[in-house]
Amino acid sequence: MGVPETGGLVALGVEPTRPATGYGYVEPGADRGGYREVVRFHEKPDAETAAVYVDRGWYWNAGIFAWTPAALLREARASPLEPLVAALEAGDPAAGFAAVDPVSVDEAVLERTDEAFVVPAAFEWDDLGTWDALERIRDGGANVTVGDVLALDAADNVLAAGPDARISAVAVDDLVVAAYDGDVLVVPKDRSQRVREVVDELDEPR
C-alpha cells in the first residue's frame, strides 16, 4: 500500500482509548482517501471536554509529524518562524534561531496553516510522560511499584521510590506516590497530569 501524497503538513493521529486530559486533540475534517483534512488542533482539555472529543471521533495529537522540507518552509514563511526561514535561506541558521521565541511547531505552523492533514496511526501509542502511564505498560498486580515500597491494604496505586527513598502506603487506593531526591508527590491517578502545575509552581522564585 502506498503512502498518500498530501503536499502539506501531516500529523499522526492516535485513536483515543480514554478521555485523557494530558494530550492535545486533532479535529478531523473531510476524508481525502488515506488521510483527512485538519479542521483544528485543540489544546489539552478538561475531563468533560475530553470525553466529548472522544465521542466525536477526534484523535490524540501524538506530536509525530511528517512533511517535506519544502512544504514546511513554505508554510513557516507566514508564521512566527519566518525569521528562521529567512536566516536558513541566507545560510545563517544560528541568527534565525536567535530571532524567534521558543515555540512548538504545532502552535507556530500547524495551527495556522490550511495545509495540515491527519493520518490515523497504525500502531499502539502512549505518552510515557506521566506516572500513571507506568500502570498501562507494567503488570504490577495490585499496585505498580518501583524501588523500596511497602503497600498494606492498598490497591491500584503507582508507588515509585528513588534510590534514597522509601514509601509505605496503607489503606489507600488509586494514588500516585513518587519520592525522588527529597521531593514527594502525592496525587490521585486520574489527576496525575497536574504534575505540570507542580513543576511550574516549584520553578517560581520564592
How would you explain this protein's 3D organization?
By secondary structure, the protein is an alpha/beta fold. The protein has 2 domains: 9-120, Alpha-Beta Complex (Spore Coat Polysaccharide Biosynthesis Protein SpsA, Chain A), CATH 3.90.550.10; 133-198, no CATH class. It is 25% helix and 30% strand. It is built from 7 helices and 11 strands. The chain has helices at residues 47-55, 69-76, 82-89, 93-99, 105-110, 133-137, 195-203, and strands spanning 9-14, 25-31, 36-42, 59-66, 116-120, 144-146, 148-152, 158-161, 166-170, 175-180, 183-188. A 5-stranded mixed beta barrel has the order 1-4-2-3-5. It has a 4-stranded mixed beta sheet with strand order 6-8-10-11, with no helix packed on it. The chain is globular. The relative contact order is 0.14. The mean pLDDT is 88.
List keywords for this structure.
206 residues; Spore Coat Polysaccharide Biosynthesis Protein SpsA, Chain A; 2 domains; 5-stranded mixed barrel; 7 helices; 25% helix; 30% strand
Topology:
Layout: E1 9-14, E2 25-31, E3 36-42, H1 47-55, E4 59-66, H2 69-76, H3 82-89, H4 93-99, H5 105-110, E5 116-120, H6 133-137, E6 144-146, E7 148-152, E8 158-161, E9 166-170, E10 175-180, E11 183-188, H7 195-203
Parallel strand pairs: 1-5, 6-8, 7-9, 8-10
Antiparallel strand pairs: 1-4, 2-3, 2-4, 3-5, 10-11
